[in-house]
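Quick note —
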Amino acid sequence: MIRSIRRPAAWLLALLLAVLLAAFLVTAPPAPATAGMLGADDPEGIARALGQAGAPAELQQAPDGSPLIVSSAAGLNYVLYFHGCTDGAGCTSLKFAVVVSFEVPPDPAAVNDWNRTTRYGKAHVGAEGELRMEYDISTVGGLPPEGFSAALAIWEELLGRLRRTIAG
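Predicted structure written out below.
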């Protein structure tokens, strides 16, 4: 038989403890990547991994102080943004992003078709008619080097496919 808490003070104490525990779990900082793993909390490590994969990697700083890496693949320049950072450090995720400009904006139907048929790499047309594609990955707890290589291979495939289908 299940007994309910009949005393209002006990019920309120239990509720208060649950709220405090939830608040702690929500605000606890994410664990940094463990040894041998790659994470957004190590921009130099991500730049090295890109270089080891044969991609150029120029580590820079965004206006908000977070790191970013400028690179290229499939004939397109892109930026790897670091997100979830506190004062430019301790970042938790990465966003691959590319912008392709056109004299005539891409057909929205083609972009919608891309998003409908593409699992990774969502695209949209920007305010000035430019095509933007982004691909986000979380690195909380770290990615094994093979996992990062797989994510990079997906991004490079997306760039190649983007050039062939939308960017022409």
